[in-house]
Design a protein that fits this description.
Layout: E1 3-7, H1 12-23, E2 29-32, H2 43-46, E3 56-59, E4 62-65, H3 67-77, H4 89-101, H5 103-124, H6 130-152, H7 165-179, H8 189-202, H9 204-210, H10 227-240
Parallel strand pairs: 1-2
Antiparallel strand pairs: 1-3, 3-4
Helix pairs in contact: 1-3, 1-7, 4-7, 5-6, 5-7, 5-10, 8-9
Domain GST C-terminal: 88-220
EC number: 2.5.1.18
GO molecular function, one term: glutathione transferase activity
């Protein structure tokens, strides 16, 4: 059995793995796990990942969860070009630093804006208040300022002159608010130029292909979500966005 990647490209971590594998010509079988249909909650998928989350990897009898662990596994197994996860101690430390920081910052605040703007009104049947939107947008802008000042600075990429896993992980996360209709790059020229360079480095066509679904997410309707997931999502969203 070859390498299998269990993914849904509506998920930011899944997109980072998909783009990384494709841009490095890593052979894999794409196993589509449709989150909105609840396919990640089935007993069949639970055999691959007991946590019932995507992404997941299966390599023969070996299974692996968590996107960063999967990215590093792929980089090491397939000996991808050094710039992705540099052998240089300090450059690698920069990548590790960002990957450690991003979870509750870029990922956390970007996801919160997406959930608040797209899914919350859909699930509650109530329009989103301008005050609530302003609040989650401000939270995101605080971490965007930190990203530019701390991690990007005046460099082309986070670790220096070449793209790394840190850049890829960062950009796919920032596309989630874009999918919700908030163009965070519009008034941030430094960020926009960095985005252009990352897309160019991984392949613009591949990047666009991976983001086709999420860029249509603002058109999502409740009938596209499995009925048994609606209440679960509603409970989780109300808790996260309170």
């Amino acid at each position: 059995m070859g390498l299998e990647l269990y993914l849904d490209l509506l998920s930011q971590p899944c997109r980072s793995i998909y783009i990384f594998a494709r841009s490095n010509n890593i052979p894999f079988e794409f196993k589509h796990v449709e989150l909105m249909k609840g396919q990640h909650r089935t007993e069949e998928f639970r055999k691959v990942n007991i946590l019932m989350k995507v992404p997941a990897l299966k390599d023969g009898s070996f299974t692996l969860a968590e996107s960063i662990a999967i990215l590093l596994y792929l980089a090491r197994k397939f000996k991808t070009p050094d710039h992705w996860y540099p052998s240089d101690l300090q450059k690698r430390a920069r990548v590790d630093e960002y990957l450690s920081w991003q979870h509750v910052n870029i990922r956390g605040k970007g996801s919160k804006l997406f959930l608040t703007k797209v899914l919350l009104p859909l699930l509650t049947g109530q329009p989103l208040s301008p005050e609530k939107l302003e609040s989650v947008t401000e939270e995101l802008n605080i971490v965007l300022n930190q990203f530019e000042e701390k991690f990007l600075q005046d460099k082309p990429f986070i670790a220096g002159s070449e793209v790394s896993l840190a850049d890829l992980v960062a950009l796919v996360e920032l596309m989630q608010p874009v999918g919700a209709g908030y163009d965070l790059f519009e008034e941030r020229p430094k960020l926009a130029e960095w985005r252009r360079q990352v897309e160019e480095a991984v392949g613009k066509q591949l990047f666009q292909e991976a983001h086709e679904g999420i860029l249509k997410a603002k058109n999502l309707t409740a009938d596209k979500i499995a009925p048994d997931l609606l209440e679960h999502f509603k409970h989780q969203l109300l808790k996260q966005t309170s």
